Amino acid sequence: MYRRQSKNYFSHFSFLDMLQKDPCQKQACEIQKCLQANNYMESKCQAVIQELRKCCARYPKGRSPVCSGFEKEEEEKLTLKSTSK
């Protein structure tokens, strides 16, 4: 006798979502290329860093793992602002 198991579609969707390509991966790779080409001087790569920031702003928090550093930076800025008042 065949028993159909119930599926948790939300978990299944989350798993599939994790398998999707990071939407800002291209910009992150461009930063790495720029940094390598410029002896890791961030000042010479501001344009590509800004492009990654723009990409990160287009997606909800947590959607792009490469954006996690920017997200943490923003949280720290907000914390500093709230404690300095």
TrEMBL record:
Gene3D superfamilies the record matches: CytochromE C oxidase copper chaperone
UniProt xrefs under PROSITE patterns: CHCH (PS51808)
Classification via SUPFAM superfamilies: Cysteine alpha-hairpin motif
Single GO cellular component term: mitochondrial intermembrane space
InterPro entries in the cross-refs: CMC4 (IPR027179), Cys_alpha_HP_mot_SF (IPR009069)
Domain of life: Eukaryota
UniProt-listed Pfam families: CMC4
Signal peptide: none
Protein name as annotated: Cx9C motif-containing protein 4 isoform X1
Species of origin: Camelus bactrianus
Lineage of origin: Eukaryota, Metazoa, Chordata, Craniata, Vertebrata
